[in-house]
Amino acid sequence: MSPVDHQRAELRLQKRQLRRALTEEEQERAAWQLARQLSTLPLFRGARHLGLYVANDGEIDPGYILSMAQNQRKSCYLPRLSKLKWRPMVFAKDHPEAVYELNRFGIPEPKTSHRNTLIALELDLLLLPLVAFDTKGNRLGMGGGYYDRTLSHLNRQKQWRRPRVIGLAHELQKVDQLKNKSWDVTLDGIITDQHFYPASIDA
Ligand SMILES: Nc1ncnc2c1ncn2[C@@H]1O[C@H](COP(=O)(O)OP(=O)(O)OP(=O)(O)O)[C@@H](O)[C@H]1O
Ligand SMILES: [Mg+2]
User: Distance (Å, rounded) from C-alpha 72 to C-alpha 166?
Assistant: First the structure.
C-alpha cells in the first residue's frame, strides 16, 4: 500500500469510529439540524428530482429531509447497486408504500419498475454520504468507489445539465485538506449539522 493509500485507510477508520460513537440523541439532533439547514437553501427548494440515501454506519440521517421533500411533492430516489460492481448505481423512486430489498451491504433499496428508476444525470440534486471531507469539496467515501463510478462523467466533461452534488456529514467528519485521487468526484458543497460549505460557484 502506498503512503497515500495508507493515510486514506487510517482516516476512514478514525472518522467512521467517531461517527459511530455518537449517541442516538446526538444523531437525532444532528439529523434535525441538517434538515433545517438544507430546507432554507435555494438548491433544495428548486430541486424536483432528489437523490438521497439510507443512513448506515453512523452516517448523518437524511430521513427528515426525505419526509420534508415528499410532503413538498418532490420525487425522491434512493441508490440501487447494479449486479455488476463496475456498473453505475441507479436511483429508484421511494414513496411511503415502497417495498424494499437489502443489497449486498444490508442497505434497503426500493423495488421499483424501470419507469421509476433514474440515472444520476436525471437528478436535480444528489445528497450523498461521505466519511471525510474538506471545504474545497474533496470527498473520502467508504472505499468502494460506488459514487465515484456513478458520477465519473461529471468529472470528465462539463454537462449542460447535471445534478448538484452535495455531501451530507456530521461536522466532526471535516478535515483541513484531503488529497484526492484522479477518479474522486468533487462535490459542489457539503452540509453538516452546523454549516453549509459551498465549494463551487454555482452550489
Ligand atoms: N470512474 C472509475 N472507474 C473505474 N474505477 C473507479 C472509478 N472511480 C473509482 N474507481 C475505483 O474504486 C476504488 C475505490 O475508490 P475510492 O477509494 O475513491 O472509494 P470511495 O470514494 O471512498 O468510495 P465511494 O465512491 O463508494 O464512496 C478505487 O480502487 C478505484 O480504482
Ligand atoms: Mg473516492
Answer: 20
pLDDT tens digits, one per residue of 129-177: 999 999 999 999 999 999 999 999 887 666 667 899 999 999 999 999 9
In this prediction the pTM is 0.96
Distance CA 143, CA 184 (A): 11
Domains and CATH numbers, the chain: 3-198 (3.40.50.10420)
Judge contact between 61 and 92, C-beta under 8 A. no
Nearest C-alpha to atom 14 of ligand 1 is from which residue?
A: 145
Ligand 1 centroid vs 147 CA: distance in angstroms? 7
Reference 168, options 50, 4, 35, 69; nearest CA is 35
Contact 140, 130 (CB under 8 A): yes
Nearest partner of 199 among 134, 141, 150, judged by Cα = 134
Is 147 a pocket residue for ligand 1 (Cβ < 6 Å)? yes
Per-residue pLDDT at 162: 83
Q: Find how far residue 131's CA is from the centre of its chain.
A: 10
Nearest to 46 by CA among 106, 123, 142: 123
148 lines ligand 1 (CB under 6 A): yes
Beta strands in 10-147 (DSSP E): 49-51, 75-80, 90-94, 100-102, 108-110, 117-118, 125-129, 132-133, 139-140
